[in-house]
UniProtKB/TrEMBL annotation:
This is Biopolymer transport protein ExbB. The accessory proteins ExbB and ExbD seem to form a complex with TonB. It is found in: Cell inner membrane; Membrane. It is a multi-pass membrane protein. Belongs to the exbB/tolQ family. Its main location: membrane. Involved in the TonB-dependent energy-dependent transport of various receptor-bound substrates. Protects ExbD from proteolytic degradation and functionally stabilizes TonB. Keywords: Cell inner membrane, Cell membrane, Membrane, Protein transport, Transmembrane, Transmembrane helix, Transport.
Length: 244
């Protein structure tokens, strides 16, 4: 009597539910590993770029760094698109409908677009983790109910209702609930961890976008720009909405 015996004795429905739980577990762990490694690399590369950006002597040095090494994280991605938008509008003006408005308005739309893209990229896969965490216990519970039902039918047919005849099959059926919980718990913990990390990095990206807009618009630091032109730069940037 045990887990292997339960899987061997159960019908197609019970085995199918077990296969579903296994696939759920594989999918959740693949996402956990992939998103975890991606988060670590994003943090490391973002910190390196921010250190370089704020210690650069000019925007040309930043542009050269991006052109040489490319973009590999959200902050350089945002900086590259913002600087390109500013240069493009200064050279060609509002040549198309998407470029309509002043240079600051076009820069604001470009920054917001990149923020939305980065939000979607950071939140990709989290829906799958949330779904697995929410449904795996119920899949396991259904497997338990199904196993108990067949165990009771078998006991009823044999007429042996003693404790030793009932406890074994029912105990085996409860294994499916344990499997469901084993699949769900890591998925829920990883979902909460990634959601919290994305919220923190989303807030940092919002703050950087605020600084970047002010710097590209005025050529000054944020403090100086707000002193010189109160209320203009801060009102233009729309913050990125991080996942609740």
């Amino acid at each position: 009597m045990g887990f292997s015996h339960f899987i061997a004795q159960t019908d197609v429905v019970g085995q199918g539910l077990f296969v579903i739980l296994v696939l759920m577990s594989l999918a959740s762990w693949a996402l956990i590993v992939t998103k975890g490694v991606g988060l670590y690399l994003r943090q490391k590369r973002s910190q390196a770029f921010l250190t370089f950006f704020w210690n650069a002597t000019s925007l040309e040095a930043v542009q050269h760094e991006i052109s040489t090494h490319g973009v590999s994280e959200p902050f350089s991605h945002l900086t590259s698109h913002a600087m390109h938008a500013q240069a493009h509008h200064a050279r060609y003006g509002a040549a198309k409908l998407e470029e309509a408005g002043s240079a600051q308005e076009f820069l604001t739309r470009t920054i917001k677009k990149v923020l939305d893209e980065e939000t979607m990229r950071m939140e990709s896969g989290l829906t799958v983790l949330a779904t697995i965490g929410a449904t795996a216990p119920f899949v396991g519970l259904f497997g338990t109910v199904w196993g108990v039902y067949h165990a009771l039918l078998a006991i009823g047919q044999t007429g042996a209702g003693t404790l030793d005849k009932v406890a074994g099959p029912v105990g085996e059926a409860l294994i499916m609930t344990g499997v469901g919980l084993a699949v769900a718990i890591p998925a829920v913990m990883a979902y909460n961890w990634l959601t919290r990390s994305n919220r923190v990095w989303g807030a940092r990206l919002d703050a950087f976008a605020f600084e970047l807009f002010a710097f590209l618009s005025t050529g000054q630091t944020l403090k100086n720009s707000t002193d010189a032109e109160p209320g203009r730069a801060p009102a233009a940037v729309v913050p990125m909405k991080s996942q609740a």
